[in-house]
Amino acid sequence: MNFLQARRNPSLRIGAAIVALVLLCAVFAPLLTPRDPYLQNLDNILQPPNAAHLLGTDLYGRDVLSRLIYGTRSSLAVAMLASTIAVLSGLLIGLIAGFSGGIVDRILMRIVDVLLGFPRLFILLLALGFGYPSIWFIVIVLALFSWMEIARIVRGQVRVVREMLYVKAAQALGLSNAKIVRKYILPNVIGPVIVAAAMLIASMLIVESSLSFLGLGIQPPEASWGTILNQGRQYPVAAWWLSTFAGIMIVVTVLGFHLLGDGLRNYLDPKTRGQQAEK
Amino acid sequence: MKAKLVEIRDLTIRYRPKDGPGFRKRSVFEAVRAVSFEIFKGETLALVGESGSGKTSVAMALLGFTEPAQGSIFYDAMDIRSLAGSQMQKYRRSVQPVFQDSANTLNPRMTVGAMMEDSLWPLHDRVSRRKRIAELFDAVGLDDRIYRRYSHQLSGGQKQRVALARALAPRPELLVLDEPFSAQDASIQINLIQLLRNIKTTFGCSYLLISHDLHLVKFLADRIAIMKSGEIVETGNCIDIFLRPVHPYTQLLLKRKATEFPEST
Amino acid sequence: MNKTSLLEVSDFELRLPQRWATPAILKDIHFEVKSGESLAIVGESGSGKSMLCRSLLGLWPEDAQVEGRIVYQMPGIKVDNILNFTEKEMEKVRGRQIGFLFQESMASLNPVLRCGTQILDIFPPHVRRQRKEARTRALQLLHLSGLEDPSKVYRSYPHELSGGMAQRVALALALAGSPSLLIADEPFSALDIITTNQIIRTLVKLTKERQMTVVLVLHNLQLAAANSDWMIVMYAGRIMEQGKTADLFDKPSHPYSQALLSIADGLEGDKLPDGIPGEIPSIEALPSGCPFHPRCRYAQPKCAELEPADQAAVHGGRIRCHYPLW
C-alpha cells in the first residue's frame, strides 16, 4: 500500500470512508439502532423527524432511522453477494477464455455476446414478477446478468498479459499452466477487475433499490431503502422524510462505491503513479 | 569435430498480421524463409540483422513459442516437434531465453526471490534452492538484498542480471539472448559482455546471440550468421566476416557508425 | 554568415520533489545554440539529457521546480524567458517553429490516422486548402526523409510500418512545419546501424539545405562526433564539458569525456575496452563534491569535498573539473 499515492487521491479516500461507514452500519446494525426497526406503533404513524424519532416514522409507526440502518444489511447483502458471484464467475470464464485462446475462447465469447444481447431489466422484472422474490433468487438473477462484463474485461487483460515476456519466460522454465495462471497472470489482471467490482456493487445497489421500490425485491416488513422509498412515493410532500432520507442513503452509498472504484483505478494505474525523474 | 547442439533446417515462419483501423485485406507475411544453420556445443553463434529481419522469429521458434510453417528444428538430433509432455519440458529448460531488457521481462507482482524460487521448482528442498539462488546471484553479480525487491525497484542493469540468473537456474545448455545490448550506454554494454564471457566460462553453455550490432557481437561470437529480410545471407567465423565479408549487405553492416559520412555531403 | 544566437540557456536548474527531499535533476545549465549550427548533447542514461530536452520545450513535469532562463530568438516566439510564458505563448514554442523528434517514433504518431493525413494536419490551413499541392508537399517531405515509396507510406497507418520507417515519418512530421530548429531526443537508439546511418545522412543534408539548427541528444559518441558542430557532455544533471566538437575530441579535458571517448574508440578495435568502474549515481545518492569523483581515475581529495565550478577549457569551451586533463 503506497500511502503517498493514497494521499494524493481524494476519490480513494472519500470513497473508502463512505464505504467503510456503510459497512460498519451493516455489521453493527443492532448496536446502532435506537429502536426496533420492526416495532409498529399505530398511534405514531407518519411522524416528522423529532426527538424520539430522529428521522421520523413510517406508515406503520416504525422508526425510519433504524429501518435505514437495517436497510444497509439487506441492500448491501444483495449487492455484494450478487457482485461476488458475478465477479468470480466472470473471472473464471475470462481466465479460461483468455488463456486457452482458439476455439474455447471463441465459443465462450459468443456465449457472452449472446447473453449481453438480452434485455436484462426486462427479463429481471419478468422473472421476479413470476417467481418468488426471495433474497437468494434476486441475488442469482442479478449475478446471472452481470458476469459477462467482467468476463470480457478479464479476457482482454489475459490476452495482453499472456504475451508478456515474463510469462514466456515462465513457460520456458517449464512451470505448469496452473501455476502460470495463478502467479503470473492473475495478479496482473486483477486490477481492472477490482475497479469493475466496485462499480458493479454500485449498480447492483441501484437495481436492488429499484426492485424493492417496485415491490418486486425485498418485501416488507424487511427493511430496505427501496421499500421506504416506495412508501414515501405515496406521500411525497406530506411525509417528505421517507423519500428524502432513503434517497440520500442510496445516493451517498452509490457515490461512495463509485468514488472508491475511481480512486482504485487511479491508484492501480501505473501511469498515474507519479513520474520517476526522467533521465 | 565439434558436436552439434542445434540444427535448423529450411525453417519458414509465416504470420497473419493483426487487424488495424484500415479495412484492407493483408496477405500472409513470411518473416523467415528457408533458414538453415547450426549451433555447436560450447560455441557462441551470433545472429545479426536489422529490426524486421526475422531473427527474433527464429529465436521464438527455437524456444517453442512459434510454430514454423515449414522446416525442422533438431536439438541433440531430436526433432523438437516430436517432443511432448515431460520431454518437451526438459527441452524447454535446456534452452533458456534472455529477453531484451524491457519493461515486461520480469513479473511486476513478484519479488525477485519468488521468481528465482519458481525457476528452481524441480528442486524440492528449500535449503538447496536457497543455496543455488545465492550461487546464481553471485555468478551474475547481484547482491543478496535483491531477493526481496520488486522489479520496479530495480535498475535496468539489475533487471537484466535477474533475467540472466533466472535463465541460468535450470542449467541450460543453450542461452538464447535476444538483443541484450539494445539501447544501452556503451559502458553498460561492456560490462554485460564481460559478464557473458565469465558466465560462459563458469557454466559452459552455448549462446545464440541475437543483435543488430555487429561491432558488439564480435567480442563474444565464434561464428556469425547475417540475416536480411527473413533469409541468411552469409555465415562464417567471426574473423572471416570482419576481414573478408562476401555479401554486400554484410559489408554495409560493417561500415562504422556514420563516421564515414562527412558533413559537407 | 552572421551567426546569431538562436537559443540561450543560463543558470537553468530543475528540481523534482521526492518523498525525502527535492533534489536537483538539472543543475547550473548554461549553453548557447547559434543559428545554422548543430549541437549534440551527449551523456549516459541518468545524465539528465532527456529532461533538458523536454525543458527546452517547456515540457518539464508538473511538479518540477524550475529556475533560470531559457530564451529563444526566433520569429513567432517572444524573446523572453520561457519560464515566464503563459500557456498561449508556450504553444508558439511547441508549434511549427520548433520540430521535435522522440526516441519512440511510434509514440509521436497517431495510430488511428494515416501517415499522410497526419502530415497534412501540420500544414497551416491555407496550405491545406490546396489539396493537390498539399499532398505533393507531403509526399516530398516523406521522400526527403528517406522513404523509398512515399505514396505507399502516405496511405499507411503507423502500425503497418517498421520501426525505421515510422521514425522517418516522424522526421517528416517534425519538418512539416518548416521549423528553424529541430530537437531530436535519442532518435536512433531503437534502430540498427544501417537505418541510423541513412536517417542521419538525411538529417545532415536537410540541415545544410534548409539552414536548420539542430539539437541532438545522443548516447552514442561517434554519431555525435560526426554530426555536430558543438558538443555538450552531461553527467548527473550537470554539464561537465562543452565546446566545439572537433576541438573537444582533439583535447577531451574532462576525465569523463575522455573515458567515453576511449570506450567509443576501443569498441571499434579488437580488444574489449575497459568500462568505467562503478555505476551511474541515482539522484538519491549523489556523491559529494564532484559527482563523478568515485569513478574518476584522476580523483584527488579536493574532488570529494568541493563541486567544481564552471570554467574556461583549453579548447575554447567550458569545463567543470578541478584537474582538467589539458
How would you describe the overall organization of this protein?
The complex is a heterotrimer of chains A (279), B (265) and C (326). With 279 residues, chain A is an all-alpha fold. In chain A, 72% of the residues lie in helices and 0% in strands. Chain A has helices at 3-7, 10-27, 29-32, 64-100, 102-116, 120-130, 135-144, 147-162, 165-172, 177-213, 225-234, 240-268. In chain A, helix 4 runs antiparallel to helix 10 (177-213), helix 5 runs antiparallel to helix 8 and helix 10 (177-213) packs parallel to helix 11 (225-234). The longest helix of chain A has 37 residues, at 64-100. The two termini of chain A are 27 Å apart. With 265 residues, chain B is α/β, with parallel strands linked by helices. Chain B has a domain at 4-105 and 172-254: P-loop containing nucleotide triphosphate hydrolases (Rossmann fold, 3-Layer(aba) Sandwich), CATH 3.40.50.300. Chain B is 34% helix and 25% strand. In chain B, the strands form two sheets. Chain B has a six-stranded mixed β-sheet, sandwiched between helices. Chain B has a four-stranded antiparallel β-sheet with strand order 2-1-4-5, covered by helices on one side. The longest helix of chain C is centred in the middle third of the chain and has 18 residues, at 193-210. Chain C has 326 residues and is α/β, with parallel strands linked by helices. The chains are: A mainly alpha (279), B alpha/beta (265), C alpha/beta (326). Chains in contact: A-B, A-C, B-C. The interface between A and B is medium-sized, with 16 and 29 residues.
